[in-house]
Amino acid sequence: MLQVIGVSKKFGQKTALNSIDLNVSHGEFVSILGPSGCGKTTLLRILAGLEKPDSGKLILDEKDITQVSAHHRDVHTVFQRYALFPHMNIFDNVAFGLRCSRVAEPEVKRRVDEMLELANLSGQGKRTVTSLSGGEQQRVALIRALVNMPKLLLLDEPLGALDLKLRLQLQQELVAIQRRVKTTFVFVTHDQQEALNMSDRVAVMNKAKIVQLGTPLEIYEFPKCLFVANFVGNINRMDGKLRQDDAGRWVCDVESLGTYFVEPTEENKVAGQPGALCVRSEKLSLFSRKPSTVDNVAEGSIRALTYLGTHTQFDLTLKNGTGIQVFQQNTQKTAKKVFQAGDKVFVGWHTAQSHYFTGNQLQ
Amino acid sequence: MKRLLEGLGVFLIYGFLFLPMVVLVTLSFNKAPRGITWEGFTLDWYSKLLNDQGILDALNNSLEIAFWTTVLSSLIGVAVGITKVRVPGWRGLGISKLASLPILLPEIVQGLSLLCFFVLFAIPLGKFTVVISHASFGSAYVATLVRARLKAMDPLLEEAAADLGAHERAVFIKITLPQLWPAVISGALMVFTLSFDDFIVSFFTAGVGATTLPLKIYSMLKFGVTPEVNALSALILVVSLLLVTVAFWHQRTKVAEGA
User: Fold this and answer.
1) Which end of chain B is more exposed for a tag (fewer CB within 10 A), N or C?
2) Which of B165, B174, B175 sits opposite A101 (nearest CB)?
3) Cβ-count burial of A332 within 10 angstroms (0-12 exposed, 13-18 middle, 19+ buried)?
4) What does CATH list as the number for B52-255?
5) Which ipTM did the prediction report?
6) Contact B164 A83 (CB under 8 A)
7) Which domain holds residue A325?
8) How far apart are alpha carbons B191 and B76 in whole angstroms?
9) B55-102 confidence digits (pLDDT tens)
10) A185 neighbors A176 (Cβ within 8 angstroms)
11) Do A218 and A262 fall within a single domain?
């Protein structure tokens, strides 16, 4: 439905977008996730028509819209700061797009009322936008962009300014509204939780490029590089060298710590290559004695522990000096403190739970 | 003791600023036709004013000139104010520096140069020339206010409107202009007051039949300070104070609140 083909953009010397390719299908909810300065907002502004790409093409429903200006595009945007018109009430704000396309007034009223209902703001059209709470402003901004029934709706970190609880609630509302109106959403955010919670697919961006595109599960469990692994969650890294053991299995030698089984991808299977063995914090288990039931075990001691409600975070120093973090679920209400700071412990994990990155995957 | 001194200081400063006006207003109610001795309260001078056709004509001229000056200044001021912010590079900067020059220029230089200009191009002096002259500095005030307001406005609003399908002109009329109204209104109030009070520039550029109220007062003074002049000045003072107060109040509450 939307095709982005080789789009590049430079601001002076700085490359904001480096040959971006992206396909979005009809009714899909795609998030563009990345740290600030990675180019995600520039990509959104190019999709909206507020910036022109230096090269590349944008195709929307089989039509080339690269040169079409913002007000002729069937694409609307929900901005980060909402950008509600302060001199208009809620109704007029929502009706703005319809009136611009000269929809008859009774029809405007019908459709705006329908949208207000969708946003739980029925009968509140006369209120001024300055009197609204953050969440309400966000909802008005959303329905103002939706009322014209655009083919594509862009959202530029619309939940960024809200507190955590409201953000979680609005995430759900947003997804529910998207499912109802079936409009294609492209959602820009730097919050990995938000992207994983809401999207059908996530495009992770770094340094002007899309580094991985996939479902939230793929992004989290099968990251293609250390950057993605790190950006969407907590991951521990142990540097070592890859080799094949006598039985032909791939192992990673971590200096002064041990030798661990890994499952490198085909192109990563190069013996002697330095690389990093990575395991997510919640996939590590703690043992007081050396366990025999797990594939891999490393020895270390607890530097600090932090109680975090749902889980406890252990900061460990491994035998070779590497610092790692382990999350343990607090499954018991009266969990006795099994581990104390300073204790000597063993960390274990199964080979399938680990990742192995090498070469430019480490950047 | 310290409080007493402070009080005295404040009293002296306010006295220095406002005592002359108090004297003027007081004398406008004095029965004595000459001099400054108090001979009792009267409103005669005010009623006499209202029957003086010369003064009423001058008032009429002043109001008419101030009105057209305000209209002209607002139009030019909005255009210049927007250019200052929206035109990039040296052209915008050049316009912005040039346009605020009239605020700083000595009025006597302005008056004289305008007079030379009108004479050179053989433009007959009259109400028209006064309006043009007043608007030359009046528009600078409006432009400055418009510029400040525009800078405080979130550029995202215009982008959002364009994104929702509004053409450039629709964006200006429906989004930009409504945001600028407070600045335009307080600018207009200020310009009206400035034009109504102006003496120097009017003195150089007013022709026959364009005598404004300040010019009329000046000519009346040639026959000495009469209580009638005091009464007239008192009235102008009250009207000016009122307009300026409204302009400032409006500016503080509406213009400063931003977008």
Assistant:
1) N
2) B165
3) exposed
4) 1.10.3720.10
5) 0.72
6) no
7) 234-362
8) 12
9) 889 989 999 999 999 999 999 999 888 887 777 667 666 776 777 788
10) no
11) no
